[in-house]
Design brief:
Radius of gyration: 18 Å
Helix content: over 70%
Order of helices and strands: HHHHHHHHHHHH
Largest sheet: none
């Protein structure tokens, strides 16, 4: 029970971008899970630690943690965690500009389709790959499917991420008014949830939009 509480506290710290606290809490929970021989608990902690490393740009550590997680969950045969880790590995491949691997990982996650949230995450992942490859209309279609699922689930954090990504599509297509509206909607949700990373990402996007419009004072702000 203590390990589960530590995991939960670690995830909350992660969302608030307090990565030092997140790592400490998750490491402590992982040690207890290993001591108890709880392999499912071990994978949960490893997966979270992998995403912390990913968000900090420590790709080597992220890969090591996530691949260890994937090996265990494949051995356990639990399809939900397998899909979750595949999606995280897809994000890692995307950040390293390995778009073919990222697409394959997101598609495998989508094929497993264990629950609607993972399906929405995989659709979002395929959308970011399409956007990176300048296939903006395909990206929009994927994002809109994912957003509809997130809204149906009541997952405001997931919706905020996809709203910001949809804003990126409109910005690339020159629809500045639509892009700003989407960014502001995403930012409002992130503020309400206390999602510091989501708020930071969207503020950066608004800054880039201001640069596109030669509004340098606004961009700096």
């Amino acid at each position: 029970e203590l390990a589960k509480v530590l995991q939960g506290a670690g995830r909350l710290a992660q969302v608030q971008a307090d990565y030092a606290a997140a790592r400490g809490l998750l490491d402590e929970g992982l040690a207890i899970m290993r001591q108890c021989g709880d392999r499912a608990g071990v994978t949960s902690s490893l997966n979270s630690l992998g995403t912390v490393a990913l968000e900090q740009g420590d790709f080597a550590s992220a890969r090591k943690l996530l691949e260890e997680t994937l090996a265990i969950v494949r051995d356990l045969g639990d399809r939900g965690p397998i899909a979750d880790v595949l999606c995280n590995l897809g994000n890692l491949a995307y950040y390293q500009c390995d778009y073919s691997s990222a697409r394959a990982l997101f598609e495998e996650c989508l094929e497993i389709g264990q629950n609607q949230q993972l399906i929405a995450s995989a659709l979002n992942g395929l959308g970011i790959v399409a956007c990176a490859q300048c296939d903006f209309h395909q990206a929009r279609a994927l994002y809109e499917k994912g957003l509809a699922i997130m809204r149906d689930l009541g997952d405001r954090g997931g919706a905020a991420v996809i709203l910001s990504n949809l804003g990126d599509v409109d910005r690339e297509l020159g629809n500045a008014v639509n892009a700003q509206a989407l960014y502001l909607e995403s930012m409002a949700i992130s503020r309400k949830l206390g999602d510091q990373r989501g708020l930071s990402d969207t503020l950066c996007s608004l800054g880039e939009l201001a640069l596109d419009q030669d509004d340098f004072a606004r961009a700096r702000q």
